[in-house]
Amino acid sequence: MDDSVPDGDSTKREGIGDLDQCQKACASETECKAFAFSKNEKTCNIYTQVLPGSRYFATSGLGIVAKVGYISAFKRSSFPPHPDRQLFLNTAETKSEAAPVSVCELVGNSSRYQGKEVRVHSRIYPAGIDTPVALVDSTCGKSIRLDVQRVGPVQKEQGYRDLDRYLSEYRTIQATMSGRFEMILVVSEQPVFRFELSHVAEVIPESRLFPPWRKPK
């Protein structure tokens, strides 16, 4: 995160004068929840406690504060589990009010859509050996990980059953979906974009892909 710091308690680490060292220091300390590095003062601040995102701004449940000249990031283990919530019991009304956006729009304006329920139309790629199911937009080359609640009304929908079947057949799919968009900031890694599915419709199967272990002869 540029020009912002975690909302919490921090201590300055002496002898650390660059961003890479600051990241490594946080990664190596069990109690470190996040770090903030001052580009002007060349100082490293380690956070052992981060407050929930209620007073200022939140990223996936954790608070951040605007502060010019700082670069900061959270450890993946710092993020709280996502609370159970009511999911689109009135999906018909909700869908009629919002036009679908693209993956490029969500990723390019992630702060605008952070934590919001949105509709998106996208091509979906099945999971690979080390890649999750993802929404992919070739226009900008961006992707968003697709997650589904283990228990919820979406699993009773015909659209979800079609989606699950086509993915199991290793097909790409075009679909319009509703769900919650999140950008997760991780120490020493690129941001992770996540879309938690709550409704899916207009599921159109495309060509079947062949994973590396099942290539046609």
Mean pLDDT: 79
Total E-strand runs: 11
The radius of gyration computed from the alpha-carbon positions, rounded to a whole number of angstroms, is 20 Å
Task: Could you tell me the CATH topology label of the largest domain.
Answer: OB fold (Dihydrolipoamide Acetyltransferase, E2P)
What sort of overall outline do the alpha carbons produce when their principal axes are compared?
Answer: elongated
| Main sheet overview | 6 strands, antiparallel
Encode the helix/strand succession as letters.
EEHEEEEHHHEEEHEE
Distance between the termini: 47 Å
The CATH superfamily title of the largest domain: Nucleic acid-binding proteins
Q: Unreliable stretches, pLDDT < 50, 5 or more residues?
A: 54-60, 82-96, 212-217
Q: Can you name the CATH architecture of the largest domain?
A: Beta Barrel
Q: Note the beta-strand portion.
A: 35-45%
State the CATH class of the largest domain.
Mainly Beta
Percent of residues in helices comes to: 10-25%
Number of helices: 5
Question: Which structural class best describes the helix and strand composition?
Answer: alpha+beta
- What is the count of structural domains? 2
